[in-house]
């Protein structure tokens, strides 16, 4: 397997952990309890930067190479760059709704919850498509030389949340993910 695909799958796993935290926060909102707005702002700050600046450009490089080597495989994936733009727009809308909810604007809580659910579904569906369709087709179609060229362009960006050291602005998000992992592991041992 390509090192780039290995890295992208790791980033998908990390994003899935982040989505689980968002889901639990939305459950608080649904139960009319308080949502941790600071945590959610940090999560959405991460989702507004890292995917578009680092993760999606890696996938876009692979997609463009796939379109050159096997247009039918690229067609099966769909317009990946447009999917990425849609996720970015959805993330911005969710962040805006969260800010409005924090300001207690009328109807903002319901809009935040609805957009949050759309955000979760959008990211989860997108990750599933990439894992089930895009990566297998790219791995089958691209040559070793293609992967070397892609890797040359990719391996110079670090993840500000899941790398060591974690950027200060994302430390509370990382702490929450680690805390939830400990609870999940302890529950599994019972």
Structural class: mainly alpha
**Silhouette:** globular
**Percentage of β-strand residues:** under 5%
Task: Provide the domain count.
Answer: 1
Q: What fraction, in percent, of the residue positions are helical? A: over 70%
CATH superfamily heading = nmb1532 protein domain like
Q: Using the coordinates shown, work out and report the CATH topology.
A: Four Helix Bundle (Hemerythrin (Met), subunit A)
Distance between the termini: 36 Å
DSSP helical segment count: 7
What is the CATH class designation?
A: Mainly Alpha
- Second CATH tier, the architecture: Up-down Bundle
Number of strands: 0
Rg over CA atoms, rounded to whole Å, is 18 Å
Largest sheet, in brief, is: none
Walk me through the topology.
Layout: H1 3-30, H2 37-69, H3 71-77, H4 80-102, H5 108-141, H6 144-154, H7 171-189
Helix pairs in contact: 1-2, 1-5, 2-3, 2-4, 2-5, 2-6, 3-5, 4-5
Structural commentary:
This protein is an all-alpha fold. The protein has a single domain (3-189), classed as Four Helix Bundle (Hemerythrin (Met), subunit A). Helix content is 82%, strand content 0%. The protein has helices at 3-30, 37-69, 71-77, 80-102, 108-141, 144-154, 171-189. Helix 2 packs antiparallel against helix 4 and helix 3 (71-77) runs antiparallel to helix 5 (108-141). It is globular and about 55 Å long. 27% of the residues are buried.
